[in-house]
Amino acid sequence: MHDRIIPYLERAELYHLARLNSQWFWLDEPLVSAFVERWRPETHTFHMPFGECTVTLQDVAFQLGLPVDGEAVSGCLGEFEKYMEGGRPAWEWFEDLFGERPPPNKVKHMTVHFTWFHERFRVLPPDASEETVRIYARAYIMMLLSTQLFGDKSANRVHIRWLPFVANLDDMGRYSWGSAALAWLYRCMCRVANMNVTNLAGPLQLLQSWIFWRFPSLRPAGFEVFSFPLASRIYTCCCNV
C-alpha cells in the first residue's frame, strides 16, 4: 500500500480496512467453524448455551472502520455488464480504467485471477503520474473488496462487478460498505449452514474479529493493541460504564 494511494482509500472510507489488511491475523478455521455450527439461518443469530448473539452494524463499524450510513451497495450480479454505462461492454470499460486487459488465461466469466492484479499492480512506479496512481488505487480497492469483504469460495478471483464503483473513486465514500459487508456475511453464513455446503466464504476476518472481541478468552495476546484502536477504545468504555 503506497503512501500516494492512501488519500484515495481515505476518501473511499476503506483506509482502516486496508491498514488492517496489511497487518492481518491468521484465520483460525476450527474456531470459525465451531461458531458456524451454531448459526441459525431462521434468526441470523448464533445459538449459544447462554442465549443468542450475532454480529451487528456496530461491530462492523468499530472493528473494520467501515461506514454504515449512506447509499446502498447494489447492482445486478448476473448479467450486470448489460447495465454498465448504457450497455457498454464491460471489458472495454475495464481497459479504460486500468489501461489494459488481462490475458485470456487469467479471465473466467466476469472475474480476473487475483495473481494478475497482484503481479501487475503490486509496486507503484516512483515516477508515476497522478492518473497512474488512480489506476493503482482502483486495482488495490478491487482486490480489497473481492478478497476481504466480498470474497467467494474460490478465494482467488476479483469480480469486475466493482467497476462502476472504482470508476468514480471520489464518490466511493458515500456508500454503506459496512451494511453490504454484514449482509454478505449473513448470506454466506446461511449458505454454509446448509449441510451440502462445505467451504467457508465471505468476510471471515470480520467474523473472527467479532469472536475475539465478544469472547475475550478466545483472542490471542495483544490482538487489540495495534490493529483495532477504535474498537479497543469503544468496547473498553462500554465495559467500564
What is this structure's SSE topology?
Elements: H1 6-11, H2 15-22, H3 29-36, E1 39-40, E2 45-48, E3 51-53, H4 57-64, H5 90-98, E4 107-108, E5 111-113, H6 114-120, H7 130-149, E6 157-159, H8 163-166, H9 177-192, H10 204-214, H11 223-226, H12 229-240
Antiparallel strand pairs: 1-2, 2-3, 4-5, 5-6
The fraction of residues assigned to DSSP E strands is 5-15%
SS class: mainly alpha
Cα Rg: 19 Å
Strand order of the largest sheet: 1-2-3
- Spell out the helices and strands N to C: HHHEEEHHEEHHEHHHHH
Task: Profile the largest sheet.
Answer: 3 strands, antiparallel
- Uncertain stretches: none
Please count the beta strands (DSSP E, at least 2 residues each): 6
From the spread of the alpha carbons, the general shape counts as globular
Average pLDDT: 82
Task: Give the termini distance in whole angstroms.
Answer: 38 Å
**Percent range of helical residues:** 40-55%
Number of helices: 12
- Domains counted in the coordinates: how many? 1
Domain Aminotransferase-like plant mobile: 16-221
Pfam families: PMD (PF10536)
Organism: Arachis hypogaea (Peanut)
Protein name: Aminotransferase-like plant mobile domain-containing protein
